[in-house]
Predict the 3D structure of the following.
Amino acid sequence: MEGLKRQRKIKIVAIGSSSTAGADNIIPYPPRLELALRNRFYGRMVDVLNRGVGGQEAADELSRFESDVIQEAPSLVIWQVGTNAVFRNQDYNPDEVAAAIAAGLDRLAVLTMDVVLMDLQYTKAITGPDKLGLSEAMVARIAAAAERAGVNLFRRFALMRRWNEDGTPLQELDDGGGLHTSDWATNCVTQALDGAIAGAQQV
């Protein structure tokens, strides 16, 4: 992540849906990440702008790129996508969601900023018998889009799934409503993202 290596003043834009905006009185990852990065990169000015809007999906977020991302001229963009395409699958065509993700990455590719694409959370509402296959397919589409565009991929779905497989009950991963991540899981996701960003500085 070249911008973060070179600049003393670092602006990061986090764009996405309720996973980014925050829900159910749980502090979302952007302000947590800002604090973690300020502690990690002491003496550097780090601001993480939260541009999440609950209920949105890739095409809606793409329509906000000019005002919410590009005009901010950030060093890094974290784009969280895919959850609503599964949770409200009756409202979304997965091919259209994938096309919007690809179009958004193409738009960012010509700009001098690093990009992290973040996939779905692993919670009850999107891993039930009627959703798991859709979730896995969307995760695969997001991974393919990141690979084609040559951008960083934060595999939140796989990370949380591993926690569950290692013994953390599924109900501890969400906030009680089944969809959004719990305070514990949000904090752990933030720590993993912070570590991934720090690791990229050492490459």
User: Anything to note?
Assistant: The first strand starts at residue 9 and ends at 16. Strands lie at 9-16, 45-52, 76-80, 114-118, 152-154. The chain has ten helices and five strands.
